[in-house]
Write a structure and sequence with these properties.
Layout lengths: L3 H12 L1 E3 H9 L10 H14 L4 H15 L3 E3 H4 L4 H16 L4 H18 L1
Antiparallel strand pairs: 1-2
Helix pairs in contact: 3-4, 3-6, 3-7, 4-6, 4-7
Length: 124
């Protein structure tokens, strides 16, 4: 039987895991002043960022966000919300908005996810 302290630690850890939807909500907090890129270019900018620097933590996180949008599944740690610099955070918000708007089409999203995966695998 777990002790009170163990239960408390487990509950605290559970609060730090975010669903895809909650991760998206957390990202939007406090960034209203940022001007995100145009919806049509958000996907291209994300892929460019991943391909240029596949080893960067932000690139790995961008690839996970892209995958989560496509599958509408996945989990993120609360700390990952703050792992993105403000420019990249605005880019991710534009990416989420573009996906919700269906811009561009699903096939292009899948090709982008495949490119992100290839860039990540090519690195290591």
């Amino acid at each position: 039987m777990p002790s009170e302290r163990e239960r408390s630690n487990a509950e605290a850890a559970a609060r730090e895991i975010l669903s895809v939807a909650r991760f998206q909500e957390e990202l939007r907090l406090g960034v209203q002043a940022l001007v995100p890129p145009a919806l049509s270019s958000a996907l291209a900018e994300v892929i460019k960022s991943i391909e240029l620097n596949p080893a960067f933590a932000q690139s790995r996180l961008l690839a996970r966000v892209l995958s989560a949008l496509l599958s509408q599944a996945g989990e993120f740690r609360r700390a990952e919300v703050f792992a993105l610099d403000s420019k990249t955070r605005a880019l991710v918000i534009a990416l989420m908005d573009a996906f919700a708007a269906g811009v561009p089409g699903r096939e292009e999203w899948q090709r982008a996810a495949d490119s992100a995966t290839a860039a990540q695998q090519g690195y290591g």
